[in-house]
Design goal:
Distance between the termini: 11 Å
Strand content: 25-35%
Number of strands: 12
Largest sheet: 7 strands, mixed
Helix content: 25-40%
Bound molecules: zinc ion
Oligomer: single chain
Structural class: alpha/beta
Shape: globular
Radius of gyration: 17 Å
Mean pLDDT: 95
CATH topology: Metallo-beta-lactamase, Chain A
Length: about 250
């Protein structure tokens, strides 16, 4: 069975560009997304997007609510978005977390039966009171009693090389990307290691990342994968996102 990669649009955010990208001017609007990977041995969700309560309660993201405008269509949530694609949220086997920021793991509450696959370093950071108090992480988004598989380094989910977690730390302590082998060639879901293409091309990082030099090293890893023929799908690239148009990639 061919592997299917299905884009899910959780909503859009906007903010001053300088928050996202060093030296950025003006304002940026960008998608918040997650991805379903259908493999013959199981269904993977890469990130889970917004928490369903964000529609009615911006307070749950603390100070971030003052920086970002969040646009989620009324009545929308991850469970419904998956159902629209014919996917039962209770049938997701694995939830791979790129990292634990609110726009990447908020929908976890609607994925009840998945095993969460996360880098050990990210899980520990997400549960560190120093970062929780600073508003970087909210364990109410992700620490919900799931079976947690804490990994260290690369991890081949199905053991056949088709869906592989690739550590790309720097944006956060244990950030990871996901490589998927499609019939059309390899794809890497970069998540927030690179928000959009120009940032990767120019090695531009956010001004307030966890470790900016480490992130640049991870970005160089992504660039070398691209040089070898991997298609990169960026974490918050509005232009690229519009080209997917809710169609699955094969
Ligand atoms: Zn992030």
């Amino acid at each position: 069975m061919a592997i299917k990669l299905i884009p899910i649009e959780n909503g859009w955010m906007s903010c001053e560009t300088g928050i996202m990208c060093e030296g950025g001017q003006g304002r940026s609007t960008f998608p918040v997304s997650c991805w379903v990977i259908e493999h013959e041995k199981g269904t993977v969700l890469f990130d889970s997007g917004f928490h369903p309560e964000l529609l009615s309660d911006l307070n749950r993201i603390g100070a971030a609510a003052t920086l970002f405008d969040i646009d989620i269509p009324a009545g929308q949530n991850l469970k419904k978005l998956l159902a629209d694609q014919g996917i039962d949220c209770s049938a997701i086997d694995y939830l791979v977390m790129s990292h634990l920021h609110f726009d990447h793991c908020g929908g976890t509450v609607q994925i009840p039966n998945a095993r969460i696959i996360v880098q050990k370093e990210e899980w520990e950071a997400g549960n560190d009171s120093k970062w929780i108090d600073a508003g970087v992480y909210n364990p109410a988004d992700f620490d919900l009693g799931h079976n947690i598989q804490k990994i260290e380094g690369q991890h081949d989910i199905f053991g056949d090389g088709t869906v592989v977690c690739i550590p790309t730390p720097g944006h956060t302590a244990g950030h990871q990307s996901l490589r998927v082998e499609l019939g059309s060639g390899p794809v890497v879901l970069t998540s927030d290691c690179a928000y959009w293409q120009e940032m990767l091309d120019e090695l531009l990082v956010p001004p307030h990342g966890f470790d900016r030099e480490r992130q640049k090293e991870s970005m160089k890893t992504l660039k070398s994968m691209r040089d070898l023929g991997c298609k990169l799908i960026f974490g918050h690239d509005a232009e690229q996102w519009k080209s997917f148009d809710n169609k699955s990639l094969l």
